[in-house]
Amino acid sequence: MYSVYILLSEKDNKRYIGFTHDIQQRLHEHNSGLVSSTKNRRPLKLIYTETFENKSDAMKREKEIKNKKGKFVIP
Fold this sequence. Notes:
Layout lengths: L1 E8 L5 E6 L2 H9 L12 E9 L2 H13 L8
Antiparallel strand pairs: 1-2, 1-3
């Protein structure tokens, strides 16, 4: 299973969108400063997830959300 996720930076109030096969491990990596694109934006909180059976579907959804990022409304 793969998850597409959206994190919200509590420092700058901006979103980060990604996908992973282990959401808890990935959140830990983000908040531990192990992810270069978010290490200066910590702390981050998980605000949205979607689950997919395979990696390709998750990647497609991540790209779709990123392309609509300004218009994306979290249900």
